[in-house]
Amino acid sequence: KASQAAEKRGWHLYLVGGAVRDLLLAETADQLMIKDIDLVVDGFHKSADVGAGVELAKALQELYPAARLEIHGAFQTAALLWHKDPELNSLWVDIATARTEFYPYPAANPEVEASSIRQDLYRRDFTINALALRLTSPRSGELLDFFGGLLDLQAKQIRVLHANSFIEDPTRIYRGVRFAVRFGFDFEPRTEEYIRYAINSGVYDRTTQHNSRTPALQTRLKTELKHILEAPYWKSALQLLDNLQALQCIHHTLSLDAELLRQLRLLERCLHRFDPQLTLVHWQMRLEALIAHLEPKYREKVAKNLQLQEDSIHRLQNLAQTQAEVRELLPQLQRPSQIVQLLKKYDLPMLILIALQSPRSLRKQIWHYLTVLTHIQPILNGNDLKKLGYKPGPQYRQILDDILAATLDRVITNKPEAELFLST
Ligand code: ATP
């Protein structure tokens, strides 16, 4: 229906980007899991009007009323969103008009009829993401491969379209790493040289210096970090980023040394043990662990630059001080109730961050607190107090705290002992 609507208006419609790549990579239909579809509209003999994508999206929304329409920017792009449709499940369809305004390309080959789709594809990141499948006739189903993307897919390589690609947009380094690890591809040797050149020339300064001209870059870097850190292959991706020295885009001192690797392994054990219900955002915890590995004076700035959530920023701001406090006080405490009194002030993510960087003995105490002490309940509860004739009121809190402390320290181990404890 989308191609008919485009043909009726005298436009070409193309499927572009990741969906084409994934179609070509999938060996069987059930390997395909496309949730994002990128479509590009182009004129037939000349470029389509800038609003063509939006017009087509509106026409399609009339045909598919279940889809939600979103328009981004005055005439830029539109998206149709099917949210949990019984047939389509969740599907996001972006419709854009072929862009010719960026990186104007000297028409190398005058025979190329669809010059604006070519230019649109030329501003993309990698050859394997710069393929297009024509959906409109004539020659519908034809693959447009101007930059050798198909050969690169077959050769399993990630190749940029031009030498300046990473200078223009350093987040492409992260994207490249993500695709390389996800598909088991290698960087084409010259592309790897371009990455190393971009890093050596200090391109990361643009990602780490926060100013009004770079928020979009920081947001894109955070998005890429999220994609990487929530994927099953996150460790290999970090390793590859480190080999390319690209962790410097987060901070110029960040590298994946043996200590950080140990901490990340421990973090996984903690998350597995203490957060099986996934109430914490695990990719964010991994990112916090990376930032926590920096010297304390850098942490807050990096967290703010990456626009982490308020609670993450707050944690990273306070980590050094909290850690010092726990390191000083915890070894002096003997009774379980004192340990609970100290550690209950901190939330689980903070305790995990502290544990990651603490010496073994301290780590064991925090582990014991999280696995054993936090689960111990006072032997008497509010109902028991009522039955014993205590009038409900603010003093309940104090009595229950005392009973909990006595339970923790095994001063009392059963109800009769608890009642005796109360009467004294
Ligand atoms: P995924 O399957 O991981 O979503 P994708 O290729 O669909 O992969 P998107 O982030 O959805 O990734 O981007 C869609 C397309 O937009 C890409 O295939 C690429 O052509 C283009 N693109 C995205 N980000 C950039 C970028 N930073 N520079 C150039 N082109 C980009």
Automatic annotation (TrEMBL):
Under which name does UniProt file this protein? Poly(A) polymerase
Give the lineage: Bacteria, Bacillati, Cyanobacteriota, Cyanophyceae, Nostocales
Supply the source organism for this entry.
Nostoc piscinale CENA21
Q: Summarize which stretch of the complete protein this chain spans.
A: 472 to 895 of 899
Would you identify the family this protein belongs to, as annotated?
Belongs to the tRNA nucleotidyltransferase/poly(A) polymerase family.
